[in-house]
Write a structure and sequence with these properties.
Layout: E1 44-51, H1 69-76, E2 79-85, H2 91-100, H3 104-107, H4 123-129, E3 133-139, E4 160-164, E5 174-175, E6 183-184, H5 189-203, E7 209-218, H6 226-229, H7 250-277, E8 283-289, H8 308-311, E9 315-318, E10 327-334, H9 335-345, H10 360-363, E11 374-378, E12 391-395, E13 399-404, E14 409-413, H11 431-448, H12 455-461, H13 468-477
Parallel strand pairs: 1-7, 1-8, 2-10, 3-4, 3-7
Antiparallel strand pairs: 2-9, 5-6, 8-9, 11-12, 12-13, 13-14
Helix pairs in contact: 1-7, 2-9, 5-7
Length: 479
């Protein structure tokens, strides 16, 4: 595992008229819409992502207690990102960023259950225009309602559809396709979704295709087939050092690892079918997650906070024809960068509306430039769960800095303090670093067009995209 990756191409940010004058820390990148063609073969794209899986729960990231042989194999065959970051560690905002390459303050997806407008240009729309068959399987979570069925006009470029907007049970439940009719199944949801993915791959093996599979584990409910639970003994599991003394969350951790083992098994099923069909070399396979899980670190559960357990996510990319195997990189990869990077690898023009970076030339070893930071957001705070309020931050390859709109800051040295147990924000010796990181944050806010306003501002601005229940919660949060 050698050879550091290199980087390319900052895309135009929020408003097309906005100045992109180069910040010293942000760096500048030439605008690249597409890569030069090298052959006539369009690569397939398979994007597999978990819900609430943190990067520290991968064997290839040094965790010796999880069981991820297929994920680890995928990493050995491709490129493993150590610093893949969820720019808004929450389900709906991440999904909008993933599909559009744009920030929540631009798309309006500023929290959960907020509708991504039909006018947004998604990766599926772009690839479909270039002859790709497109498919989506799994959890959608980009509607303002909680209905399981998503009508065709709301699928944002995906043709094949086997999904439900929000999840129900993980056993013996249903999904929807082209009508509201419920297609019931028996068994474990992840296995069923993988069956559907395999069928899609087999059906489209002779043409270029783009398939997104949004699995639900290890997100609650903490349920999984018993055979995976039997793989782990909670008494033998190790909690992270930043779990408060006296807190024993190992039974929860056991189920979490079991859910990941179930995902790993199904990744193996998908990669095997690619080998069997002889299309593995020409298929870009990515595995990632929308955000992580605190799992009692710092006394917290869930996500939506600027700690590593929440924002640092798995990201593995394999593309045998063009990406050298066995590489591990510390390059920063934000959620908004995925869409333009995949389009770059597919040699397809990138829409001018995209705010993320096209890192394809870096991945292919054709550029030495790297982003020096990524931008982090929590845009709204929902009533009843206002533990930290709205915040913005930046993450570099070494430091995490976040500022809360109401009060409080965090500043961590992730190399000296990987479990973030020593907040440097008030340390006299860190005064210069704090000023530097605040300046970096200000550059990002300006670059993205983020006014870091209170929740009520975004409620008013994007009200038409929000459901009534969410509006009540958001309004309550500021009363």
């Amino acid at each position: 595992m050698t050879k550091e990756r290199k980087e390319i191409s900052r895309r135009e940010f929020i408003t097309r008229s906005a100045s992109v004058a180069g910040a010293a820390l942000l760096g500048t990148f030439p605008s690249i819409a597409s890569c030069a063609k090298t052959d006539g073969r369009k690569p397939n794209v398979i994007f597999l992502f978990a819900d609430q899986m943190r990067n520290a729960s991968l064997g290839c990231m040094g965790n010796t207690e999880v069981h991820t042989p297929n994920m680890d194999k995928l990493a050995r065959q491709g490129l493993l990102f150590k610093n893949a970051i969820s720019g808004y560690p929450l389900c709906s905002p991440y999904r909008a960023m993933l599909l559009t390459g744009r920030y929540g303050t631009s798309t309006g997806v500023v929290g959960n259950s907020v509708e991504l407008p039909n006018t947004e240009i998604t990766i599926a729309k772009v690839l479909k225009e270039h002859g790709y068959k497109t498919g989506f399987i799994g959890k959608w979570h980009l509607e303002k309602n909680h209905n399981p069925f998503v009508p065709k006009e709301r699928r944002l470029g995906f043709d094949y559809w086997a999904s439900r907007n929000l999840g129900g049970s993980v056993f013996d439940d249903f999904y929807c396709t082209d009508t509201p009719d419920e297609i019931h199944y028996k068994g474990f949801e992840t296995d069923i979704q993988t069956n559907l993915a395999i069928n899609f791959i087999k059906k489209n093996a002779k043409s270029a295709f783009c398939l997104f599979v949004a699995w639900r584990p290890p997100h609650p409910p903490r349920e999984v087939p018993q055979k995976y639970l039997d793989m782990f003994d909670p008494k033998k599991l190790t909690q992270r050092p930043n779990v408060p003394k006296g807190t024993d969350d190992r039974e929860n951790l056991r189920i979490y690892y079991a859910q990941i083992a179930a995902l790993d098994y199904n990744i193996g099923r998908i990669t095997k079918v690619l080998d069997d069909l002889g299309i593995a070399d020409d298929t870009i396979v990515c595995f990632s997650s929308d955000h992580g899980d605190m799992l009692a670190s710092h006394g917290l559960q869930g996500k939506n906070v600027p700690y590593e357990e929440s924002i640092n996510i798995p990201f593995i990319m394999r593309y045998p024809r063009k990406i050298k195997a066995g590489q591990k990189t510390d390059i920063l990869l934000n959620s908004v960068d995925v869409m333009p990077t995949l389009l770059g690898l597919c040699e397809v023009p990138i829409p001018k509306s995209v705010q993320g970076l096209n890192l394809s030339q870096t991945i292919l070893g054709k550029s030495s430039k790297k982003p020096e930071s990524v931008f982090l957001q929590r845009i709204v705070s929902v009533g009843g769960r206002k533990t930290t309020g709205e915040w913005r931050g930046v993450r570099t390859s070494r430091y995490t800095y976040a500022r809360f709109r109401d009060k409080g800051y965090v500043l961590f040295d992730n190399i000296k303090d990987p479990c973030q147990m020593n907040n440097l924000i008030d340390k006299p010796e860190a005064k210069g670093l704090r000023e530097q990181m605040e300046a970096e944050l200000q550059k990002w806010l300006k670059q993205v067009g983020d006014d870091f306003a209170p929740t009520a501002t975004y409620v008013k601005r994007f009200k038409a995209q929000m459901n009534k229940r969410m509006l009540r919660g958001l309004t309550d949060a500021d009363e």
